[in-house]
Amino acid sequence: MKKKIAVFSGDGIGQEIVPEAIKVLDAIGSRFGHAFACEYAQVGGAAIDSAGIPLPSDSLALAKESDAVLLGAVGGPKWEGLDYERRPERALLGLREQLGLFANLRPAKIYSALIQASTLKPEVIDGIDVLVVRELTGGIYFGKPKGIETTPTGHRGVNTEVYTTEEITRIAHVAFKSAQKRRRLVTSIDKANVLESSELWRRVVIEVHKSYPDVELRHMYVDNCAMQLVRNPKQFDVIVTTNLFGDILSDEAAMLTGSIGMLPSASIGSTVGMFEPIHGSAPDIAGKNMANPIGTIASLAMMLNYSFDLSKEAELIEQAIQITLDQGFRTKDIEGEGTTLLGTKEMGETILQNLGRL
Ligand code: NAD
Predict the structure, then answer these.
(1) Looking only at Cα atoms, what is the longest distance across the chain?
(2) Average pLDDT of 245-263?
(3) Which atom number of ligand 1 is nearest to the Cα of residue 80?
């Protein structure tokens, strides 16, 4: 197989974790005879420094002409004073919009070796395996009117939650199709008791469900879901929800597993998918060889699975991660009693060695 991958390491720890994932990609390529051609470009703060904007046109063009995008993280204190349109994070919104990435998939799965790293009781989290499917290009982050207006007495801030039938239909299909490959249960999260946009959301999800009789559909209000995720997370298989609710619930689901550094994500939609760890650029540990590269390596596995249909290769990477953790190797963020502390590079190297033995 021949594939072209746009690699955006971005800022902060992005520069340290992405190279570890690329080593794994190269190892998979040589072992299975795939030609993965990686091309690098800048986005985020690095692009602001070199080109004055967070998403230069050549970076966007590279993303569009590639088969998939691997991204580290963007942002950092250096660029926090800039206005919203010029901030590093705009690169993410631009890529999502331009690549038509309307669905964000975030699996939250517990590794048995890391059960102690969670703040929840082992019996609550042992065996959890949740996939949050978040709508990514609609809802309150993009709805109009928006802005801050001046009023006779001060100011008025406005954002608008908007969803169309088309937007809800396509994300519902992603959720039901994902559930068919898993435990066949979709829980749709809304606030249909208060919001009209949620009322439409529920109506459309019920309609789309008619094409998936093999999948069970449940509905839950978002406030209840926030509670249920910490009370009994094992009740969930696939959660499908709006942009805003998904932003919050996917972080909550992530924390069930103990560390933000472990978790991958996929953004899919039209032809080019984008894969990145769920965490940010972690300026507090950047440049110290302390960052956990597992979320990025697992994102690479998602790329192989979702974009290239290489499920066997993806499975091998996941096994290599699992074995490395079972052997007791840890980066600082997941360190525990009786474990062996490794730096970013050493963790990448150990996963690579375990991959070679499989
Ligand atoms: P963050 O995810 O960067 O860090 C939160 C905490 O988790 C920090 O203590 C950090 O050290 C730790 N952490 C994160 N990833 C880790 C890893 N791989 N290994 C070990 N520890 C890890 O969130 P933040 O501090 O709120 O944001 C920092 C910057 O990142 C901001 O500029 C923010 O806008 C940006 N950000 C970018 C993305 C993205 O690129 N997708 C996502 C979130 C935040």
Answers:
(1) 70
(2) 89
(3) 32
Q: What is the pLDDT of residues 295-333, one digit of tens each?
A: 999 999 999 999 999 999 999 999 999 999 999 999 999
| Residues annotated as catalytic (active site), given as ranges | 141, 191, 223, 247, 251
Ligand 1 site residues, Cβ closer than 6 angstroms: 13, 73-76, 89, 92, 260-261, 276, 279-285, 291-292, 295, 333
pLDDT tens profile 70-100: 999 999 999 999 988 899 999 998 999 899 9
Distance 24 CA to ligand 1 centre (A): 23
Average pLDDT, the chain: 95
Q: How large is the average pLDDT for residues 6-19?
A: 98
Q: How does pLDDT run across 218-238, given as a tens digit for each residue?
A: 999 999 999 999 999 999 999
The whole-number pLDDT of residue 116 equals 81
142/163 Cα distance (integer angstroms): 10
CA of 282 to the centre of ligand 1 (A): 4
Nearest residue (by CA) to ligand 1, atom 26, is 280
174's tokens:
């992603």
Which of 9, 250, 279 is the pocket-test mutation for ligand 1 (most atoms within 8 Å of CB)? 279
- For atom 16 of ligand 1, the residue with the nearest CA is 261
Residue 279 Cα, ligand 1 centroid: separation in angstroms? 5
Vertex 326: Cα angle to 320 and 327 (nearest 5): 90
CA atoms of 192 and 173, how far apart (whole Å):
20
Segments in the chain forming alpha helices (H): 14-32, 45-51, 57-65, 90-98, 122-125, 165-180, 196-209, 222-231, 243-256, 294-306, 311-326, 344-357
The pTM of the full predicted model, rounded to 2 decimals, is: 0.91
Domains of the chain: 1-102+269-358 (3.40.718.10), 103-259 (3.40.718.10)
